[in-house]
Amino acid sequence: EVQLLESGGDLIQPGGSLRLSCAGSGFSFSDYAMTWFRQAPGKGLEWVSTISHSGMKTYYADSVKGRFIVSRDDSKNTLYLEMNSLGAGDTAMYYCAKDGCYATSCVTPRLDYWGQGTLVTVSS
Amino acid sequence: EIVLTQSPATLSLSPGERATLSCRASESVSGFLAWCQQKPGQAPRVVIFDASHRATGIPDRFSGSGSGTDFTLTISSLEPEDFAVYYCLQRGSWPLTFGGGTKVEIK
User: Fold this and answer.
1) B46·A112 Cβ contact <8 A
2) Residue B44: CB partners within 8 Å, gap ≥ 6?
3) Do residues B8 and B20 make contact, with C-beta atoms less than 8 angstroms apart?
């Protein structure tokens, strides 16, 4: 059974930094691209970042480019999101999701499984 | 970026009725559109991927159709567990984008 478990969410002051983690199990982690999404309270869904299965390609939403860094450690089956210069607009539930396409078989991720999310609150 | 417009914003129906949800893209996404269901307090889950393919474990009362810029999610006969918010998501090009959602509520 595929499982994705996010962690690292916290209450953080504006301008601060935070690292989120997403531990995957039940699949061959290194064979799939992984993606972060977020959802502000009471709002819709927003794509944040994607990393290819190899880790060689990364993609970012304009709203986070230059502030967030996505990475992965396949030896730990874990995806990360390093978030810097956080502002109130970054307050959201952050979800990781697995690509349904194997390795490079899709140009963009065809998502199949989502984690339950971790909450980031940016406030003084 | 590709803008997805969902309609209606809210759909008020009774169990057993048919639900038809629409998603229109500002430019073609080919067949690369998914529908995600989200219940209150829960993570989203994919119900349809690539326009018309049901995700694992999704009952056959859910069906998707369309290509290019116009897509439809149909729930043939609503069950109590189907009342939720539905988002469309395109992966036709970067950045990935979502529609604003359609809330299917009990009438």
Assistant:
1) yes
2) A37, A45, A95, A114, B36, B37, B38, B87
3) no
With contact defined as beta carbons under 8 Å apart, do A119 and A41 qualify? no
Tokens encoding B84: 């939720």
Which of the residues B36, B96, B103 would you substitute to probe the A interface, choosing the one with the greatest number of A C-beta atoms within 10 Å? B96
Residue of B nearest to A93 (CA): B43
Residues 36-95 of A with CB under 8 A from B: 37, 44-47, 50, 59, 61-62, 95
Selected for mutation to probe chain B from A36, A47, A93, A105 (highest B CB count within 10 Å) is: A47
Q: Count of CB atoms within 10 A of residue B36's CB?
A: 26
pLDDT tens, N- to C-terminus, chain A (124 residues): 999 999 999 999 999 999 999 999 999 999 999 999 999 999 999 999 999 999 999 999 999 999 999 999 999 999 999 999 999 999 999 999 999 898 888 889 999 999 999 999 999 9
CA distance from start to end of chain A? 40
Three-class SS of residue A88?
Answer: helix
Q: How far is A61 from chain B (nearest CA, A)?
A: 6
